[in-house]
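I have a small job for you when you get a moment. Can you supply me with one protein entry, sequence and fold together? It will help me judge whether the discrete encoding reads sensibly. Write everything out right here, beneath this request:
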Amino acid sequence: MLIIAHRGASGDRPEHTLAAYDLAITQGADYIEPDLVPTMDGVLVARHENEISGTTDVADRPEFADRRTTKVIDGEELTGWFTEDFTLDELRTLRARERLPDIRPQNTAYDGLYQIPTLDEIIRLVRAREAESGRTIGIYPEIKHPTYFMAEGFDLAAMLVEQLHAADYAGMDAPVFIQSFDVEPLRRLDGMTEIRLVQLMSAEGGPADDLSVSYADMVTPSGLDDIASYANGIGVAIPLVLNAEGASTGLTEAAQERGLLVHAWTLRRENAFLPPSLQRGDNPASHGCAEMLFNMLAAARVDGVFADQPGMVAERRNLAGLPRCFTQLTPPVSAR
């Protein structure tokens, strides 16, 4: 099972920072996952969202107070500060912050230490760590809100492929997956590159670029047939691969029969993200028994898992048997 560091080792460092990616590599992640958005001057940078008030100190910077605005992104109205309204040099003056301070208060010790990294810097980090460790380290970029950004004049798919090809990432053997929740950008990418593509799907809703289709439609046999015509895998919320009893829903088997890889998201240790039967204590920030959830995903034979604590998953992958923290074999699975 591939270990994909979800936004880096985001359980231990503020997400989408070079420190989080570097720690994830140290912890044994096979791939690191940068979510990509553009700057005003067309540079791809790593943020989970283009609205950055929750992950940087931009709200405390009086020189950028006039950049606060309201936009509609994929049908959702958001107010804040957006990467596409800043040049790279301006963004580089900001410092990253922990996105979930109530759940991960220990990570706030690193607030203010790190800049927003560019894709180029992430690639250079990976190459340096590969040379140091002698092992291959993959990257798993997601293009965020590509349909919205296309309307704003940024073709994220083309920008990403150009940069990856220039860095000698090409072909199906390259240690890269490109992912998106939208469909049309992946179809376009299928004609632009041989790098492997992954269709992301949530347990609810549907792709922002095709409101006539739901993700529920896309996990049906005909939906999977369609995905297999342009993508190499699916990245799906855990409730799509595990039922309420913690057993396989059959999606993994159905997808793999069509030659699709199945990568599940997101495995996290904190009680706030675990089903009640895997929680320990009443504190949402306390660590529950995520190891049990890993075992269920392994039993369902998923090909990879996105994890906020890749070190925990690496340890579990190297062990046999069940964790000791719980004896139940089939606890219900959270929809989160």
User: Anything to note?
Assistant: The chain has twelve helices and 13 strands. The chain has one domain: 2-50+120-317.
